[in-house]
Amino acid sequence: MADAIDNERSIQALTEDKLGNSDLITDDDFVQVPLDTLASEKIDTPKYSYWGSVAKAFFSNKVTVLMLVLVVFILGMSFIQPLFSGYSLKDVSKINDLGARYNWPSSKYWFGTDQNGQSLFDAIWAGARTSISIGVIGTLITTTIGVIVGGIWGVSKRLDKVMLEVYNVISNVPSLLIIIVLSYTLGSGFWNLIFAMTCTSWLGTAYSIRVYVMMYRDREYNIASKTLGTPTFRVVTRNILPYLTSVIVTSASLSLSGFIDYEVFLSYVGVGLSQNVPSLGRLISTYSPYMTSYPYLFWLPVLTLALLTISLYVVGQNLADASDPRTHM
Amino acid sequence: MKKYIFFRILRSIVSIFLVTTLTYIIIYTMVPRRDVFKQDPNIQKMASNPDNLLDYEQTAYDKMNYIDYVDTKGLISKVENAHPDVTATAKHTATNAKLFQDWAKQNGYALHRYQVSKNYYAVRELPIWERVSRFYGSLIQIDSPWKIHDSKNPNLARYLKIENDKTVGWALVGSGTKYRYQIYFNGSFPYIHQNILKFDLGTSYPTFAGNSVTQVIGGRQGQTVSTKYKFPNGQVMNTADNVYTRQYQSRAHRDEMAYDRYKDDYTNTDQVNQDPSMIGTSFRAGIVALIVSYVIAIPIALGMARMKGKWFDRFFTAVVTIFISIPGLAFIYAFRYLGSQFFGLPDSFPTKGASAISSWVLPTIILGMMGIWGIVIWFRRYMIDQQQSDYVKFAKAKGLTDREIYRRHIFKNASIPIVQGIPGSIIGLIGGAMMTETIFAMPGMGKMLPNAITDHNNTVVIGLVFIFAIISIMSTLLGDILMSIVDPRIKLSTSGSEE
């Protein structure tokens, strides 16, 4: 936001310069023009398309584009590669083939092989697919519930009283604690884990939406709109929520890497996913004993994980910046 | 203000109660109760003797408050207590069966028979509300001279006296109480100790089986340490017994050697161990980590704000972006590797143990580092907002140097968000400590929670959730109160109106 203000200032300075440089004005500078009735009917503002401006602002940053390429690459690999590799944790066909075990990365095995002779390259993409799926599905759920509840929460005083108490209790408890206890009680499984993760985390999104809705609710344009008879529902969905695109994108990008982080830790300690589901956390936990003997087995999944969350975060943050209309000037 | 604080504390207690109760209910209703035996080696050993196995399982359920379990012996004594005029036996006669059946019906029990011996036993399923009320009912234990009732020792003296005890010096000594020394003094922090008020969070099972959860979480760990004591009988000897924790031992289980030493019925002692308790380990690491995060974060944020837009700001913006988005696990492993490779620090806590400071360094500093980035973002934002405020412009106009403005004006105002951020940092630390302690195998509460979960140790899980909830909710409360002290403009009592 501070950068936007800076930009505005520099533009002002530029226009002032131009005015100051213009010379004296004489009669020769003026030409008589007949009245053009057609032109006066035309609306002559430059065309503004919101998503066009978002795209323009988004792609103007080189780092973002690089990170976007990385995100697309990792997403592509993790959703397409496992279809061909047929990686399965239960596959033990090469377990007795000593030659296939512990191969360092080479042209045949790009990321090397593990103690069961399985290719780490296949394992990483299969694992990343699970981790990304959990992150994306979890984020979709929390963002949807969060925005809906937050919208209602911001305008309903009765709901506000109840929800504030609930929020005060939940927000004071570490979320990892809630998730770990819930996934323990629900038992292991993909959808159980997603439920455990999203069960309370939508409250954070809803709370931040609520704060913004309250901020915009009593602005003049909304009071005017209400006076003209717009129902509250329409005020929230049409007048307020579009302003919050950048807020929603920011919280979504935060929760995306947050969920991946939680999944990794839960799988690492052995809670959450079932035994036969590969995930980056499970890879890191199974390969952590090989940290010194076969470092590639351990560090490559860690590196993939780090690249994944960093690129997702940077892309998400810059998308949030770009979706803020104040940056479009 | 006082009224506000009173209600705030009340609400915090309600919050803690709610979180614990909810956890208790969902764990005890949703986790299949058979799961507690998954990791138990005794189950395998007893497989050949179904009666013993059944007895073992029912006793375990009884300890965990799933059911009330009465075995044959207990059944006989219960029936005889209820009907003093009859005598019941374990024999499988019709009269016995009828007696048992009647008693079971009256008290809501269901009568069953063992598989092999065909003896009777009775089981009563406890409804969840009764389990919860038992949990809270026994939560706070207050010792008094009427605590112990031993039928083998009817003439037990009952008193509380302040006296100069032969082993521990001046102390409030009790008889008829559970603990011998109610209040005592010694050289270890905080110098004055009490045994009057104790928390009872249940019995741990299947790991640390038979120990109380308070002892598991709050008791010292590691090898025992011997100390030299002078006992009431004049004997001087080295012992690992913690004489300050002398508890009443029923005459039926009396250890004659200990009785000879102490000359009274308080012969049951805990041991003195060398390493800090789980809660102690976590607290030490947590407090140092909190200091580390603030000591590193604040100079970085100050520098970034002062040099906004310059290379320093840009460089650290990139660093913050990377570290805030990197998963905790990758972060911990990367820094653990760096620390052990380049500084020769142990990469696992048990390698050198709790007595070596070097084993604390990495887990504590990494835990602190995980909290830095959030503080940096938030503090930089605050400082930049302050730079544009009127009082800073006025100070500039007066001709103060940048240094003076930062030191005298901005930093003072900035102490408000520092204080405001502390509760959030503490809540973050709890989550972070689960990761660092697990990876470094550091015996703290953060490592215990995932361990207790994989071992299906439900009572310890609830105990830990209870403690974590207390820490985080109370730190939020203290943060608010502290903030109103730091910034006199903040009036908590009117903070209810947000619109």
TrEMBL record, chain A:
Transport found in the keyword field: yes
Chief site of localization: membrane
Any Pfam family: BPD_transp_1
Record-level GO cellular component terms: plasma membrane
SUPFAM superfamilies, per database record: MetI-like
Domain of life: Bacteria
Membrane-spanning intervals of the chain: 63-84, 132-154, 166-184, 190-209, 240-260, 296-316
Membrane topology listed for this record: Multi-pass membrane protein
UniProt-annotated location(s): Cell membrane
Gene Ontology biological process terms, A to Z: peptide transport; protein transport; transmembrane transport
This protein's record includes keyword rRNA-binding: no
Domain ABC transmembrane type-1: 128-316
Keywords of the record: Cell membrane, Membrane, Peptide transport, Protein transport, Transmembrane, Transmembrane helix, Transport
Homology family: Belongs to the binding-protein-dependent transport system permease family. OppBC subfamily.
PANTHER family per record: OLIGOPEPTIDE TRANSPORT SYSTEM PERMEASE PROTEIN AMID, OLIGOPEPTIDE TRANSPORT SYSTEM PERMEASE PROTEIN APPC
Protein name (Swiss-Prot/TrEMBL): AmiD
From TrEMBL, chain B:
Main location: membrane
Record flagged with keyword Transport: yes
Subcellular location(s) per record: Cell membrane
Membrane association type: Multi-pass membrane protein
Cross-referenced InterPro entries: MetI-like, MetI-like_sf
GO annotation terms (biological process): transmembrane transport
PROSITE patterns on file: ABC_TM1
A family per Pfam: BPD_transp_1
PANTHER family membership: INNER MEMBRANE ABC TRANSPORTER, OLIGOPEPTIDE TRANSPORT SYSTEM PERMEASE PROTEIN APPB
Listed name of the protein: AmiC
Organism: Schleiferilactobacillus shenzhenensis LY-73
Lineage: Bacteria, Bacillati, Bacillota, Bacilli, Lactobacillales
